[in-house]
Structure formats: C-alpha cells, structure tokens
Amino acid sequence: MYRIGDHLWISNVIPNAQHLVNQLNCHKMRWMQSTDTTDEIEQLFNISRKVLK
C-alpha cells in the first residue's frame, strides 16, 4: 500500500489491473474502500501513475 496522505491509501496493482483504494470520508468519518484503475486514480486524486509503481 502506498500512503498518499493520512486520508488516502492506495495498493499495488491487483490481478484485475486495478488498485484497492482506502479513503477517509471526512464528512462521515468513515473509511471508504473502492477499486479503481490507474487512469481513474490519476483523474480522481490528481496523482501521477509514477507514484503508483
């Protein structure tokens, strides 16, 4: 897992070419978990794919 900040953790690529994303929702004070492709992570979180390698 890559720690991007206290509120965002992203895993290495899993077999389905996606990343497991754990993100803290500050409004609900809950951790939300999703799977996103590298392209989606670049768009949603403005994180370079180089950081995820």
Describe the structure.
There is one protein chain. With 53 residues, this protein is α+β, with helices and mostly antiparallel strands. It has one domain (2-52). The chain contains one helix and four strands, in the order ββββα. It has one helix spanning 38-45, and strands at residues 2-5, 8-14, 18-25, 30-36. A four-stranded antiparallel beta sheet has the order 1-2-3-4. 8% of the residues are buried. The mean pLDDT is 89.
Strand order within the widest beta sheet = 1-2-3-4
Spans of 5+ residues with little confidence (pLDDT < 50)? none
Order of helices and strands: EEEEH
Major beta sheet summary: 4 strands, antiparallel
The total of helices stands at 1
Q: Tell me roughly what share of residues is in helical segments.
A: 10-25%
Average predicted confidence as pLDDT: 89
Per DSSP E runs of 2 or more residues, the count of β-strands stands at 4
Structure class: alpha+beta
**Termini Cα gap:** 11 Å
Instruction: Give the overall shape.
Output: globular
Q: Strand content of the residues, in percent?
A: over 45%
**Radius of gyration over all CA atoms, rounded:** 11 Å
Number of discrete domains: 1
